[in-house]
Amino acid sequence: MIQRVLSSPRRRRRLRWLAVLVVLAPLIYLGVHYSNSAEPGGATGPEVADLPEPKASPFTPAEQRAVRPVLKEFISEAVAREGVARSWDIVGPTLRQDTTREQWNRGELPVEAYPARKKALGTWSFVNYSYEDTVGLEVVVFPKPGSGEAAITADVELVKRRGRWLVDYWLARPFRGGPGLTDKQARKAERKVAQELATQRRVKLSERDFESRPRISAIWWAIPIGLLSLIVVVPLTMGIVAWYRDRKAARAYERSSGT
Question: For residue 20, what are the contacts with CB-CB under 8 A and spacing of at least 6?
Answer without folding.
Answer: 233, 237
